[in-house]
Amino acid sequence: MLMKSGERPAELIYGPNGFRVMRPGTHVICAVTGEAIPLEALRYWSVERQEAYASPEVATRRHLK
């Protein structure tokens, strides 16, 4: 996903049932692939690692490492 001028990553705290926005932004960066994930599309993260993932396959790959 290409980011437009003025778009910046959000800073989140990930919990078991959701996340809390600590610094507003339009997206987060996948910890594995480096791709931007729009906040409205964010569905996968690790509470323990405090990381976001682009898809369930990417999250599984990360957890198996």
Quick overview:
By secondary structure, the protein is α+β, with helices and mostly antiparallel strands.
Structural description of this entry:
The protein has 65 residues and is α+β, with helices and mostly antiparallel strands. The chain has one domain (11-64). The chain contains 1 helix and 6 strands. The protein has a two-stranded antiparallel ribbon with strand order 1-2. The protein is globular and about 35 Å long.
List how many beta strands DSSP finds: 6
Instruction: Give the helix/strand class.
Output: alpha+beta
Shape: globular
Order of SSEs, N→C?
A: EEEEEEH
The overall number of domains is 1
Query: Which percent range fits the helix content?
Result: 10-25%
Strand order, main sheet: write it out.
Answer: 1-2
Features:
65 residues, alpha+beta, two-stranded antiparallel ribbon, 32% strand
List the helices and strands and how they pair.
Layout: E1 11-14, E2 19-23, E3 27-29, E4 36-38, E5 44-46, E6 51-53, H1 56-64
Antiparallel strand pairs: 1-2, 3-4, 5-6
